[in-house]
Amino acid sequence: MDDEHTAEYTVPCAQCSAVDWGISDEGRFYCRSCHNVIERTREVVDLSFLKLSSRVSTIRGPRKKQAERGHVWMVCEGFQFILKNQADALLELGVSPQFKDDVLCPLWRCYLQKSRQAYTHDPVRSCKFRVRAVGSDSESASEAISCTDGESNPASTAGSNTENSGFWSGSSDTLTYLSARKKRSQSLLSMKKTLALIYLALVWSREALTLSDLLRLVNEGHIPYLNAYEQLPEEMKVTGKDSLIFIVETVPSHHAVHKEAETIIQFLQLPAFPPVSRQTLLHPALLSLRYLSDVNLPDELHPWVCRLLEHTGMMDQTLHTFDPHNHPTLPRYDLQAAALIIVTLKLFFCLDDMTEWHLSNDLGRPKDSGKVFNLRRWYKVMEAALIQAQERRDQNVSRKQWKSKKQIYPNKKEKCSMIKKKRIAEQVQLCFEKLTSCPSGLQDVGPSSFIFCWGDEEKSDGPSLHHMKLDEVVTRRCDFLTPLNDMYWHPALRRCLCYNSHYKEVEATLPRSFIWLLQLFAFMFDVKPFCLYEEVLSVERRIFDTRLYRGKSKADAGASAEAAGASPEAQASLNTRTSPRMTRTSPRTAEVSLGTRASRRKRQRSRS
Questions:
Q1: Which of 222, 281, 198 is closest to 92 using CA atoms?
Q2: Closest by Cα among 399, 490, 409 to 445
Q3: How far is C-alpha 583 from the chain's CA centre?
Q4: How far is CA 157 from the centre of its chain?
Q5: 3-state SS assignment for residue 423
Q6: Which residues of 149-165 are buried (b: 16+ CB within 10 A; e: fewer)?
Q7: Average confidence (pLDDT) over 438-459
Q8: What is the C-alpha to C-alpha distance for residues 226 and 247, in angstroms, rounded to an integer?
Q9: What domain of life is recorded for the organism (predicted)?
């Protein structure tokens, strides 16, 4: 233990000239060779007392000490180490090794070459310092910054002048990233871009991780992001203005990372991705099965989701594969699969705040109701589990240590105040731990692809409903099984010219059960409900013919509906933009599984 505190003190002993120091019980330094005691004392920081005092004993020594400098490095090298650590974390979680070697590395080299940061004869601009007033150790010296093309030894320039100027940083090209001109450029790296690159590599490799899975692993700390710079090598000193590049305080949203990924695709001009076939785990046919299990819905519902995929033409792999010519949009695989489940539930239970509860009341009468799926029972189980999951997430966020243990000081003036604030924060945290008897930090929880756990175990979220049957909510017509419900509603499906979401405007008119279902999946994916709402509308545009989907005029859509024999209510919904629902279905939707009003009346008379 003494060696840790005496390693930095290398002054020879005044009597025997030996450099072998120890620390006595009183905290004073003594020579182990001749037992000479000197006035130097060990710094002691006692955090066990409750009195909030930031006063500590200090070691008297020389006032000026030459700062330790590591190797000269560039910002892209720091991001390369961070990207490598993120990829290694995914490999430990079970991702295929080809993801890193065959996909991510070539993608990273391509990005460096396109952004002119490496692998090019015309590198990006490098910044030089021109110091106007140079002092011995003055931090208020003014400087002028000029940018030149090429790399005319920027490392030596930055390393020689940063000490005398007010600019303090560890990397050699920090000013390039902080200049106003380069901030407007899309070629500069950022922490958010590392997640976008990881996500693109996962999609190219057709791994079973969606974007919401990736962000959840980042939030839980299984993939380094918030304090990723702490894992940089020791010789790469991250100081000063580097904090504006490498320090992030929040995890970016699902929408932000997806948009960043599409920007990178356009910037790199990537070719068509490998096809996402039905056997791929990213395909909605298999991804929806996973989400059905996570939300505790019956397994018998999955074939109906596949039937909906076939009817809407979404079984085609070209719709789920990025192609710059045929399909130039990167799909949101997780949101798309959840939207298909929501539309399937609407086909079965209507979700208009009335029909679903009437069907649930009818299902409570048979003797074998314990084996038949009941939407009311499922709602009660899911509501309780959702509340508990939200409380767990809030507690984990409140207990999470957001501040890094290895702080980066923006400048030398703020270093002392930041050290003092850190000591006070540690003392306050220690006091709260003693008062609340709460374990320090978060408990290590293994990563999982599922949010909820169903079964009869002690720590499960509720009983499993996967084995439940759908016999009481389906009927046979013309030798085909179809849902008992023959009603379907939807908002106005015509695309707005501004291409913005109108969810907030129509939210008050939507059924509460439908909104609750959106919020359930939004909690699972950590997205806003309007993102799911837009995906649901996209699926419904494919169901209700695609004159709406292709964006024809209102008159053409109304004329086509009248020619097809649609009801006046359906025609009215086609001609209105803010109509919240359509109470009757078009003939095209009836082909999926819906019945007629006469058959429904016949069933009601037989029950009575």
A1: 222
A2: 399
A3: 37
A4: 39
A5: helix
A6: eeeeebbebbeebbebb
A7: 75
A8: 7
A9: Eukaryota
Tokens describing residue 294 = 């996570």
What's the pLDDT band for 590 if we cut at 50, 70, 90? very low
Six-digit token string for 501: 């979401």
The residue written with tokens 């679903």 in the block is: 356
Q: What are phi and psi of 529, to 5 degrees?
A: -60, -30
> Mean pLDDT over residues 175-198, rounded?
77
Where residue 601 falls (left for φ over 0; alpha for ψ -120 to 50; beta otherwise) is alpha
Secondary structure class of 78 (helix, strand, coil): helix
Q: Is the pLDDT of residue 140 over 60?
A: no
Q: Which tokens belong to 351? A: 């979700």
Contact (Cβ atoms closer than 8 angstroms) between residue 112 and residue 118 = yes
Positions of E strands within 57-190? 126-131, 143-148
Residue reference for tokens 């731990």:
433
pLDDT tens digits, 536-576:
999 999 988 644 444 433 333 343 334 333 344 434 333 33
Spell out the residues 6+ positions from residue 138 whose beta carbon is closer than 8 angstroms to its own.
164
The answer to whether 377 and 474 have CB atoms below 8 angstroms apart is no
- Model pLDDT for residues 346-397, shown as the tens digit of each residue: 999 999 999 999 888 876 655 555 688 999 999 999 999 999 999 999 888 8
What pLDDT digit, counting tens, does each position of 473-489 carry?
888 888 788 888 888 99
Distance of CA 568 to the CA centre of its chain: 45
